[in-house]
Amino acid sequence: MSMSPQRRRWMWAGIALVLIGLLVVGFFAAFHRVPVDVPVPPGREARANPMHALTLALRKAGHSVVLKGHLDLQRDPPAARGTIVLPYPEAQIETSDDAANLLAWVEGGGFLVLPMPRAASAPALDEFLHGGLGVFPDWGSKDTDDEASAACAMLRLPQAKTFELCGVPFSVEEANAFASWPTGARPKHAARLSVGDGEVLLLSTLEPLQNAALAEPENASLAAALMAPALNGDAVWMVVYRGGSLTALLWREGWPALLGLGLALIAWLAWRTQRIGPLIPSPAGHRRALTEHIDAAGQYAFRNDHGRALHAATRAALIERLSRRHAMAGLDEAALAQALADRCALPLSEVREVLALPTRAPPERFRVAIATLSKLLHRL
User: Fold this and answer.
1) CATH number for the domain including 121?
2) Do 205 and 323 have their domain in common?
3) H/E element holding 46?
4) Cβ partners under 8 Å of residue 319, min gap 6
5) Which of 25, 81, 29 is nearest to 231 (CA)?
6) Domain range holding 223?
7) Helix (H, G, I), strand (E, B), or coil: what is residue 85?
8) Are 80 and 108 in contact (CB under 8 A)?
9) What is the C-alpha separation between 361 and 308, in angstroms, rounded?
10) Which of 189, 221, 251 is the last residue of a domain?
11) How many Å apart are CA 139 and CA 147, to the nearest integer?
12) Number of domains in the chain
């Protein structure tokens, strides 16, 4: 029994729908939606500011945060009870005045957060740490033979949370510190120092407060515990520029390039400076002035006795035009000069002179004769 074409089409359509349904069910049975976290590189602000994440967190919590490139306490000081965060103290405390001004501001009631410098620092920063705060780096700890383990410590803060902090350990005078971690006689990795009416939070490193570290919950808790005493309502200044003043940065980091540029400038000046003999004019450049070429060609022709030929050609052109347009071509010289003077309103003497120019005429007289003949040609 044969099927009709219409039924056959319906059968194949049903089979296709069943296959499509099976494929869809199999796809959703084999695959399911999975969220994937794709790390993206930090943006421009995050690359320039290592405390960008902390800045956003403080602003979201309602605190006022001011970003600064360079600390100048004389011209633009923060509030007396404000907070300053110095991720790069070696770039901001460069002179004795910087150290004295910062110490005076802290003694007046300010709160300062800074890390220990990672390497030998400027004398001004050493003066601030040693003389002002009574803090000394302690890489040579004798508590352990392993320097790497001496650079890390487990901190147990009052909130009963334990954190690991790795950085430059230091020792501090107990008279200045009312809280330090770890406790005991071991090298410290965090300390709160009382300086006058203000406080200083000194850490072996600020890496747990920086952008990448704050993504971890334990570092976020550590940041909240450490920054809580500094948030007293006044603005928090983030001084994040790592190079200090531009002049100091160029002098400290760019002196090889500056020396090379200076030597190159001296060599160029010596090469360009006149040293022996009088000043001579520069050679004339190549020029293509058409009028100068025409003038030079005319002077050359006149010097080589070709002026008479030019005069004869111009006079012949005048006589030819007279023969075509007027009945004056058959007149003699005197009658022709009189007729041209009357017709063109020119002095008779001038017309007579240009029609009979001497062979050795001066240059000025020759020029006047050619100009007058051209004027007669145009007026006829």
Assistant:
1) 3.40.50
2) no
3) helix 44-48
4) 329
5) 81
6) 44-251
7) strand
8) yes
9) 9
10) 251
11) 7
12) 2
Residue with tokens 């790390």: 39
Considering the domain boundaries, does residue 52 fall inside one?
yes
C-alpha span between 177 and 124 (Å, rounded)? 22
Residues 217 and 297 in one domain: no
Alpha-carbon separation of residue 213 from 49, 82, 162 (angstroms): 14, 25, 16
Question: Looking at residue 187, what DSSP letter applies?
Answer: P
pLDDT tens digits, 207-237: 888 888 887 877 777 788 888 888 876 889 9
Whether 188 and 171 have beta carbons less than 8 Å apart is answered as yes
Residue 34 lies in a domain: no
- Taking the C-alpha atoms of residue 112 and residue 82, their distance in angstroms, rounded to an integer, is 9
Tokens of 121: 């620092």
Residues 73 and 189 in one domain: yes
Residue-wise pLDDT for 68-121, tens only, equals: 888 888 888 888 889 999 998 888 888 889 999 999 999 999 999 999 987 767
16 part of a folded domain:
no
Q: Please state, in angstroms and rounded to a whole number, the distance separating the CA atoms of residues 289 and 118.
A: 71
- Distance of CA 278 to CAs 29, 274, 282, 312, Å? 96, 8, 12, 51
